Amino acid sequence: MSRFGPIAILAAATALSACSTVSRVGSALNPFDGGEAPSQTAPQDGRVSILAFEQDLTPDTALQSRTITVPLAVDLVDWSQPGGTADNTPPNSRGAGVLERAWRSNLGAGSSGSVQIAAPPVIAGGTLYFLDGDHRVQAVSASDGSRIWNTQIRGERRDRNARGGGVAVSGGRVFVSTGFGIMVALDATTGEEAWRQQAGAPFHSAPTVAGGRVYAITNDSELVAFDAGTGAVLWNFQAIAESARILSAPSVAVSGESVIAPFASGEVVALLAANGRRLWSDALSRAGRLSSLSAINDIAGRPAVEDGFVYAASHSGVLASIDLRTGQRVWARPFASTQTPWVAGDVVYAVSVDGELCAFDKATGNIYWVSQLRRYENEDNRTGRIAWQGPIMVGGRLILVNSVGDIVAVTPESGNTVATESVGQAVFIPPIAANGNIYVVTDDARLVVFR
């Protein structure tokens, strides 16, 4: 197995700076070390994940007579935001979803002992953009992987190590947040720098662009809004600082005039896009947690907004539906996840930290079905815990990848796995989709494309 088990945790210092990210934070920790889970994070027989220990993932008998209707697939040309769209709810993308490998390409530097890639690529206008492990923005053809340009993003200091950040595309520009605390706008055609801003701390999140503004969250839980045209800081919002988080690159959701931001404390906060005024907040944390690992509250995935409701999940074990207008919870279920919920029709799909893929009723949170995905590299010995990324929906199938290089297609109506292929390398970044293709980036920054 590669560098992590099912999750990696950044024990971030309370006063991070862009020039000292790695020295202050230290290496990403692997709670399972590629082997058996230690006793403080799972029962010694390994049969039950402590993070899912109190989860009641029982299908609702009343839903068994209802048929899940999958939305019609649409031609999805671009995946221009880290979550596909600004509200993190892209549609069912037209495609075969049969997991036939199409081609491979190199996206620059991958993860190392001091740098980890965590943000997905984005696609716009036939070009795929990606922030690699050497802090280079790579622009390649989305049809064959041929290189168009690359630009290295560096701070004023000589430090080479930084974690966090990502890319988004809008209005002919590529917006890049980095672990050096830099936000940069590049010309999408040439890679030429249009503007840059230096934040007071490294950026943890990938950027989201909407309504002429760019949003990103720093390692000390500050949300910053920039003017997309000039780079001027428009406003900022300081959430509760949290020193422990999952190694990921989440991003905010934007729906209309509301910005919904996830934080490492387990807070999900809605703010007014124009000035950053807080509209409401909720804490997706659970009491009575059984270990220091399960006490990590981070919302490591992205909040998804659909039809006036926010769906978000925390690592400590809450999946919730929240009314976007009032901030009132519609429902909440005990469900530990580091991934973005996928909303399709009347169903919310999510995968737990223990590899349980579930279909929740969007209105009530009750469960249609639960499908246990592969949990261990060695199922007989129950060693080598596996982390799952996704899902996304292509051709009416749920697509997920994992930390041992599997890619699977699952039927959203029943949870049956109908196709499995090998990516060839470990994957810790969720897949994306465009033009009928599924794009997967491995931990070594190899781009593998499936149809």
Describe the SSE topology.
Blueprint: E1 9-11, H1 21-25, E2 101-106, E3 122-124, E4 127-131, E5 136-141, E6 147-152, E7 165-170, E8 173-178, E9 182-187, E10 193-198, E11 208-210, E12 213-217, E13 222-227, E14 233-238, E15 244-246, E16 253-255, E17 258-262, E18 267-272, E19 278-283, E20 304-306, E21 309-313, E22 319-323, E23 329-333, E24 342-344, E25 347-351, E26 356-361, E27 367-372, E28 376-378, E29 383-385, E30 388-394, E31 397-402, E32 406-410, E33 417-422, E34 432-434, E35 437-441, E36 446-450
Antiparallel strand pairs: 1-15, 2-36, 3-4, 4-5, 5-6, 7-8, 8-9, 9-10, 11-12, 12-13, 13-14, 16-17, 17-18, 18-19, 20-21, 21-22, 22-23, 24-25, 25-26, 26-27, 28-29, 30-31, 31-32, 32-33, 34-35, 35-36
Question: Care to give the gist of this entry?
Answer:
The chain is mainly beta. It contains one helix and 36 strands. It is globular.
Notes on the structure:
The protein starts with 8 loop residues before the first strand and ends with a strand. It has a single domain (9-450), classed as 7 Propeller (Methylamine Dehydrogenase, Chain H). It is mainly β and 451 residues long. The relative contact order is 0.18. Helix content is 1%, strand content 39%. It is built from 1 helix and 36 strands. The longest helix is centred in the N-terminal third of the chain and has 5 residues, at 21-25. A hairpin with a 4-residue loop joins strand 17 (258-262) and strand 18. The strands form 10 sheets. It has a 4-stranded antiparallel β-sheet with strand order 2-36-35-34, with no helix packed on it. It has a 4-stranded antiparallel β-sheet with strand order 3-4-5-6, with no helix packed on it.
